[in-house]
Major facilitator superfamily domain-containing protein
Amino acid sequence: MTVAMLPIATELHFEVQQQQWLISSYALSFGGLLLVAGRMGDLFGHRRVFLSGLFWFGLWSLVNGFSKSPVMLCISRALQGMGAAAQIPTALALIAIKYPAGKSRTRALSVFGAIGGMGAVTGLLLAGALTSTIGWQWIFFISAIMSVILFVLGVFAIPNTSGLHGESPKIDVGGAFTATAGIVCIIYYISSGVEAGWASPQTLPMLFIGLVLLTIFIMIERRISYPIMPFHIWKHRAFSTSFVVVFIMQAAFQGFLYYSTLIFQEVLQYSIMKTSLSYLAHGLSAIIIYSILGKFLPRLPLKPFMLIGFFFLGGSALMFAFVTDASSYWVLPFLAMIANVFGLGLIMLPAQITALRDASDDDQGVVGAIYNVGLQIGSPFGLAILTVISGKLNSGVHGPARMHGYKYALVGVVVFALLGFIVTLIFLPHVKPAVDNKEKTLESLEEGGISAVEQDNITETDIKVTMKPLEDCTQMQEQKENLNRGDDKQELNEIEAQAGDKQELNEKL
């Protein structure tokens, strides 16, 4: 949409102040419904919600292509965003449930990220080519066609999953309404504040309403037994810190993406198609880097990778800040693109692994949804601050001279990256990707001299039988510690005797 925004606005006669709604209408519905869609997947089955969202997305993509007015396009874009909201958290949940924590999940998330990079490349190239030739409408028509194809494939390829809370789960209607409306109001305030003013009658009441609704939402969630957002997920410091980290990361990345596009088109005077091709290095690098990271991350601490990622993210913005109208693409812009995708890969994939690590299967949908809410709110938040900086410095300036304001906005991106580095360094615990029971047992067998060929014949039942004494010993140790704090010495002696027998069996295994 970024490269096609100006041609769409020209053909449909958007006013200048209306152009932001091409992006904001989609972002509002997408960000506002993520939490609800993620929890609906937990309740009614992630496959069902994912496929429903895919069908809905394709339907309104088709309507977008036939839009003849700004109002029609913005409304259909908002409805399209609802379909996207149903797909993203449920896709993450399907991966997390299908692949247990450890190597398999890390590699699955790496493939997920690599395909995302491939999609970004394809989308940019197609958007530029279609807009320059047969028209922007075909951006949406292609999306509709691909949605139909993916829907059919999904029906046969995605395993059927039932809801995790029984046949007739209770729905937190009050929480769903207040969360959705509150998030929409906050995103609207952030997105519209730049043009209308942060304290204007148009935006300030929306901030107040959003905060009130979110306060009511928190009160509802604390009082009911079937909340749409269980508060126990926030007790995991790794998850709560990951949410803040991806919020800051997305604020920095969206700023980089926005201003690099403006620099290509206004400072370097690139055409729409040439701008699209300029991002080819970014997308192709994402495919390669995510694939490589999937092989190295499972056994390594994640925190150092994320710290290095923020270094690359800030460095990429700093390189773009020194671009001039005489700069060659292959010097600063190209190197900045490579550094930026390194930063994204080193932050986003470890953050996904960390966020999903401690969540139970019942909470995978809502955890994936909240993670993506952080991404969605981070984008307009970052742009809102950065556009204030560039707007003040570029007032009345046109053409390549606008690089002056863009330069200081990109310095703002560097500040975001520095903030993310500090938050990660101080608050993120040192964690590795979790290792599932089968991986632990196979490693122990290998250390004991059992070959890989022999390991191939070991079944899940064998794993469970082997792990059972270990689990029993752990439970007995906990009981012993509890009894040590009490007075029942006879029961304590019985527990110790049983634990000794179990320990002997464990040593034999």
